[in-house]
Specification:
351 residues, 2 domains, Phosphoribosyl-aminoimidazole Synthetase, Chain A, domain 2, alpha+beta, 60s Ribosomal Protein L30, Chain: A, homodimer
Chain lengths: 351, 351
């Protein structure tokens, strides 16, 4: 990951021109979805969902803010840029069908680099059955900028919003939390070691899981499929991008309710715990505030508890209360603490 | 325009946080369109077009590449960022209904500045009946980045693409060309004078039209409305963003045809000619390669000529030929020249 790949500084980008570049990067795209009527190559793409509703979400990723090119392989970056958007569509209980991709690149970027980035984006499209239907390619005076818009379809009656969590609803989360944040900490640590002494090869052995959580997050299509299978309609849902605390507070604020969750119910993978302890961080704080897990955080009516209780991919971590503005976590020693939307910066300041 | 507005370097942006910032900028938005089911505030926006098709287009604007903050008032920048996207929707013979807006800003940007930018975006939404339904706000390590996605609706039978121009079709263009490019040249000239001697106030008197063409372009909704009124269905259409030559060649390439246009038919405003001559540029070259005019370039069947011939906002400038790959312009002295997709850089190199 930290190896020097010696990309040829081609400057071919300018020669190809914007039109040529888009054509080059998108020439092998074949539209898969019947709803994708017209893809790349016109003023706009054309989509037709007939009796479904359309959901639209967009994300802007900026080099130096959202990713560090030193330890992010371009193919992974492309994959992640696409999947974090798809995750937002799944968080509406909808199915992503199309994306548009806009990128701004500096002259330092080689065509090979851009091809790798697109490979990752197109791989995500392949895995999740999505068509790349449009976009924009332009120059940047500084780093790489990626803007992706994901479009999907859902039934009017099954879309799930953030503002309909009700008192006594159970709070559930898929998968496990904190791993992506620990992956990032490891990458940052090895980057520092490498910068101080380029002879030292990074040591990532045993950390595959948390690294993958950071570099190649998968949106939880399987959980959305599960809802359909077992006949559960969540009352509210959000994907965990900012961190469990922050995202749960979003649901509560928008639903005008409060919440109580339990520390001992929060799912954390053993390798996340090992990595956190090694770096002298509190695993539970990482799980609460780390973010970028792209798990689904949702609430269900008590009536649906029996349907969900044996689903291994979902943990029930607490319940919604009528106490608007009160966001509580009960620690293992049964003390009550206030949840705050701190974001991951606070984790490192604290410890 | 070049005045120093002394914006307070607030750094409030960080204090507000991403969530607070989006809320602050979007709190007064009221959805106008029945198709806008759910706007800002969830993982994704929700749209419903029923029996219409959806068109989607996206643009990425980067400071230092697409705009210069020295002479671009932020409100104008916001307005233009929105309208250039709406123009792409109109170029499909469709009606824009929603936009999403993603912006990345550095710490140098004040909240007042961001508010002005949004004011411009929301003014464009107001004028063109569009809802702002979502977006993303993040930090930038360098300049301002704006990514806008516009979504619109059209009837399956009336959408117009780039690839269906036929031999003998008439080539038409709305409004006039070259003005936006001359506006840019003026702004660049006054910027240089100002940088060399900040005491000299810029002199823009008599240049209102070309400045407005550059700073506040209007998409041609009225032309799309006209098609409906007079019952014309263009065989192909594109908006003039790269320049007449380049955009006409896009239509021809995608339709596998050639074209012949006539220099004396190309509409150029008198103030564009005056400005070009003053700056020792050839007005016709500016009209062919200047770009950013956001006029509609389209082809119609010969049968529709009578319907369009008295429409003052449209000029017939030539016709489509069967000669694939041959793009010709007949000059005033009746000589035939080849059209090339040079883009505006070439204009200045040439002269």
């Amino acid at each position: 990951m930290l190896e020097d790949k010696n990309p040829k500084p081609l400057n071919e980008l300018e020669e190809l021109g914007e039109f040529g570049l888009i054509q080059h990067l998108t020439e092998n795209i074949k539209l898969k979805n019947p709803s994708s009527i017209k893809g790349v190559g016109d003023d706009a793409a054309v989509i037709e969902y007939k009796d479904k509703q359309t959901v639209v979400t967009t994300d802007l990723l900026v080099e130096g803010i959202h990713f560090d090119m030193i330890y992010t392989p371009l193919k992974h970056l492309g994959y992640k840029a696409a999947t974090v958007n798809l995750s937002d569509v799944y968080a509406m209980n909808a199915t992503p069908k199309q994306i548009t991709v806009s990128i701004a690149v500096s002259n330092h970027m080689s065509i090979e680099g851009l091809e790798e980035l697109y490979e990752g984006i197109l791989l995500a499209c392949e895995v999740y059955g999505v068509d790349l239907v449009g976009g924009d390619t332009t120059s940047s005076t500084s780093g790489l900028i990626i803007s992706i818009t994901a479009i999907g379809e859902g039934d009017k009656d099954t879309l799930v919003f953030r503002d309909e969590a009700k008192e006594n609803d159970l709070i559930c989360v898929s998968g496990d939390l904190g791993g992506a944040f620990m992956g990032l900490q490891l990458l940052e640590r090895e980057k520092q070691i490498f910068q101080e002494n380029p002879q030292v090869q990074p040591d990532f052995s045993g950390y595959d899981y948390v690294l993958e959580r950071q570099l190649k997050p998968e949106p939880r299509k399987d959980v959305v499929d599960m809802f359909k299978e077992i006949g559960v309609h969540p009352t509210s849902m959000i994907d965990v991008s900012d961190g469990l605390s922050s995202d749960l507070i979003h649901i509560c604020t928008q639903s005008n309710v409060g919440c109580t969750i339990y520390e001992d119910k929060i799912p954390i993978d053993p390798s996340t715990i090992t990595a956190a302890e090694e770096m002298q961080l509190d695993p539970i704080v990482c799980a609460l505030n780390g973010g970028e897990d792209y798990e689904l955080l949702f609430t269900i009516s008590l009536d649906d508890y029996n349907k969900i209780k044996d689903q291994k991919r979902v943990a029930v971590i607490g319940h919604i209360t009528s106490d608007e503005g009160s966001y509580q976590i009960v620690s293992k020693d049964e003390k009550i603490h206030q949840l705050t939307a701190q974001g991951w910066n606070s984790i490192l300041k604290k410890d």
